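Incident review: delayed structure delivery

Summary: a single-chain prediction request sat in the queue longer than the usual turnaround. Root cause was a stuck worker, restarted by the on-call engineer. No data loss occurred. The affected request and its eventual output are reproduced below so the record is complete for anyone auditing the incident later.

Affected input:
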Amino acid sequence: MSQNNKSNGNNYSLREAKFYNKWRRLFLFLVTHVFYMIRFKLVYRLEVYGKENIPDNNNFIIAANHLSTLDPPLVCAVMNRGVAYMAKKELFENPFMRWWLNWLGAFAVDREKLSVSTIKTVKNLKETDWVLGIFPQGTRQEAGEISHVAKGFATLAKSTKCGILPIGITGTQEVKRIPFTGKIIVRIGQVIPYSDDVTGMVRQWETAIEDLTGFKYVEDKAAV
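Output delivered after worker restart:
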């Protein structure tokens, strides 16, 4: 891999507030609220509960369980604002993916460590009408269990003084194409206030996701 490619992730890890402009917001809206929402409602009979728990401000991080590649656009579709996701820096080495992720408001991260630029980007988001969206499990997991939960999202909440909005997702793991054959339910919980107790915030999120999804936390599979 060339030195230029190695640096791509770093070039896209810091986003200023002005990056999240009206054109990027419009692009995200068209992709998630128009293209994906038609599929969610027509094929998956989407039901959303708890929208009253979404704060009026943007001083929070969205943290949802992860079952499918449908989850990121799904979370965006049920929110009333832009949602910026962290994407592994290697994805930005591909020209098309880099263009796509840029327009969706994503930014590059190193999965091995929480960088200063990541913290700065989340703080900059607080100056816009966007919020950070994150999946604490990192990758897609089996339905019915909550496992492989990393603490990075709670550390980020502490560092940026953001609350954590838990979102429970069920049904996206089942790929459906025939209308009205699927069922997706999204339940939005109450905000978990940020604190200096990172482990405590993680446990509160795990409990909230258990309540919202009916899944069970599996401790021996959790990430350190």
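Verification: The chain has one domain: 3-221.
Action items: add queue-age alerting; document worker restart procedure.
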